[in-house]
Structures are given as structure tokens and as C-alpha cells.
Specification:
Layout (H helix, E strand, L loop, with lengths): L8 H8 L5 H12 L1 H6 L2 H8 L3 H10 L5 H12 L7 H4 L20 E6 L5 H13 L2 E6 L12 E4 L13 H35 L10
Length: 217
């Protein structure tokens, strides 16, 4: 008989809060309110931000039935992981074009070239953009500023913010979101032909075991 699945670590934590000692309750509330930080930052960093003793996080984990903080953090990380989804070709078949879809980017008969760039701009991206313009292709530039060399003469400059991130490296979140939107729009407009090609690509990747599955390597 299969064992019942354990409740999510955050649910366990919130349920246990009233019965915890006051100091552990404060640490528990901090973890519940900052579960992303709990999965990405060290115990010492968390303790510094929370104004607590690092050992408090270990005591909290043990109070919840875990062997220590690392096991609780692993459970929090796993809980944040999205379930393994279906191939995109199956998920996208029900995607409908909304009223705000920017179909002009991909509905032309000319070839389209998408170039992504942010400061400092790579030589390859600038040369690719120039070659696309010379060839008469429609140029879509995903860039951090309108004055970027990759966006010069672009038919469709799409801007994202890369310098506002508090991290050491530029943030590419906006660029990825734009690229995904373009891919989804292109797939929708491609209809049955696009779906068939995507299914063939997914089948080739599956045949060569390019991705790890739930069954392991």
C-alpha cells in the first residue's frame, strides 16, 4: 500500500507555527514569507537578514521533523519546482491567438531574423543584424536600448531592461520573455505544419535521450 504523500513543507510550517517556541516562530514566519530566498541563499545569509542565530534554522527544521536545515531547504526547493509538463507541441495545440498578439512580426512572407543583444554587444550579433538588413530580411531586434547597434534599422525593436538587476550580471529575464512570446506566436501562426515539425524535433530529442526524465538517466 502506497504511503500517503507528505504535505508541502510550507503548509507544514504554517500549521506548526502556533505550537513553536516564540523565537522559532519568528524564524518560521520569516521562512514562510521568504521561501524563495530560503531555497537560494545560505543559512548564514538568511540568519543575517532575519536577525537570527543560524542555528535557529536547524532547530526549526528539526521541529518540523526534518534532519536539518539542508533537508528542509531541499523540500522547499522541490515544492517550488513545477510538475513535469507535457511536450510543448501538446500544450500549444490549444493556444489561441489573443486580441493583443503582435502578428505583424511573423506574418510577412519575407524571412525574419531575430537578434538579441545587450551592452557590451557582441561582434557576431552586430554583423548578423547588418547581414539581415543587406539581405532584405525582416529584422527583429531584442535589445536593451533603441541606440543599440543590433537595433539599428530594425523593423521591430523590442526593448528589455537589463541593467536594473541588483545582481552582478545583467538580467535577461525580459529578453527571455520576449523570445518566448515570439516563439509562441510563430507556432500559433504556423498551424498544423509547425506542430508537426515540433513533434518531429521532440521525437528526435527523445530518441537521443537529450533530457533527463523522472525515470532517471
Amino acid at each position: 500500500m502506497a504511503e500517503p504523500s507528505r504535505a508541502s513543507p510550507l503548509s507544514e510550517l504554517r500549521s506548526a507555527l502556533p505550537s513553536l517556541p516564540m523565537r522559532l516562530r519568528e524564524v518560521g514566519r520569516f521562512v514562510a514569507a521568504n521561501d524563495y530566498d530560503a531555497t537560494t541563499r545560505s543559512m548564514r545569509e538568511l540568519a543575517s537578514v532575519a536577525g537570527a542565530d543560524p542555528a535557529s534554522f536547524t532547530r526549526l527544521a528539526k521541529a518540523l521533523g526534518y534532519s536539518g536545515w539542508e533537508e528542509l531547504r531541499a523540500a522547499l526547493t522541490e515544492a517550488r519546482r513545477p510538475p513535469q509538463s507535457q511536450p510543448f507541441s501538446l500544450r500549444a495545440k490549444n493556444r489561441r491567438r489573443g486580441p493583443d498578439s503582435d502578428v505583424s512580426l511573423v506574418s510577412e512572407k519575407l524571412d525574419a531574423v531575430v537578434v538579441i543583444g545587450f551592452a557590451p554587444y557582441s561582434r557576431a550579433s552586430v554583423l548578423s543584424a547588418r547581414a539581415a538588413r543587406r539581405a532584405g530580411a525582416r529584422l527583429i531586434a531584442i535589445a536593451d536600448t533603441l541606440t543599440a547597434p543590433v537595433a539599428e534599422g530594425a523593423d521591430h525593436p523590442l526593448l528589455f531592461e537589463s541593467a536594473a538587476s541588483p545582481g552582478f550580471f545583467p538580467s535577461l529575464t525580459g529578453a527571455v520573455a520576449i523570445a518566448q512570446s515570439l516563439a509562441a506566436a510563430a507556432f500559433t501562426l504556423g498551424g498544423a505544419v509547425a506542430k508537426k515539425r515540433l513533434e518531429e524535433t521532440e521525437a528526435r530529442l527523445a530518441a537521443t535521450s537529450e533530457y533527463v526524465t523522472e525515470k532517471g538517466l
